[in-house]
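For the sake of clarity, the format in which proteins appear in this thesis is described at this point. Each number in the token line that follows is a code from a learned vocabulary of backbone shapes. One such record is shown here in full, so that the layout can be seen directly:
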Amino acid sequence: MLGSRGSVVPLFQSQLARGGPLTVTDPEMTRYFMTVHEAVELVLQASALGLTEAESEGRIFVLDMGEPVKIIDLARQIIRLAGLQPDKDVAIEIIGPRPGEKRHEVLLHEKETPVPTACDGLTLAAPRTPDLALMARTIDELERSAQSRDATRTLSLLQRLVPEFDSEDALPVTTDPVPISSSRE
């Protein structure tokens, strides 16, 4: 949400108040933004539709977030709004992404087709429904491969459970012993 606690806007404002630099993780990083008012309105409309429309059962409401914004462009705009010039009066520093951080938010994965609703700004997404028995067996197998430190097999099983998971983006595998406890103990 624009201006909310987790938003980059208050962070940029704080960094600007200290004289900079404004920190951006990656020059290609994008995020969606909407105001709290817009989000609340769409969530309330989704709640009402969820109660009245049978076609929404078992589906997920997706808010129309508009177009993604480049974070570096937002940083430059905030500097300009303060009457200053980016990279002249206030620096922008590229600090690199945090572990697991994505460059671009994805609202739907490629196998989900958005379904229009009667409400502008809301679409429906039909989630994949897994076979629970197969999922339980795969999770057991995942636990065994993690305990035996078989990184290749563990990543393969994660890919099976979450097809959108890209093991190329996974954190490097460490050989340091890490205790693994089972929830079934």
In short: Confidence is low (pLDDT under 50) at residues 173-185. The helical segments are 8-17, 36-52, 71-81, 132-147, 151-161. Residues 64 and 121 are 5 Å apart (CA to CA).
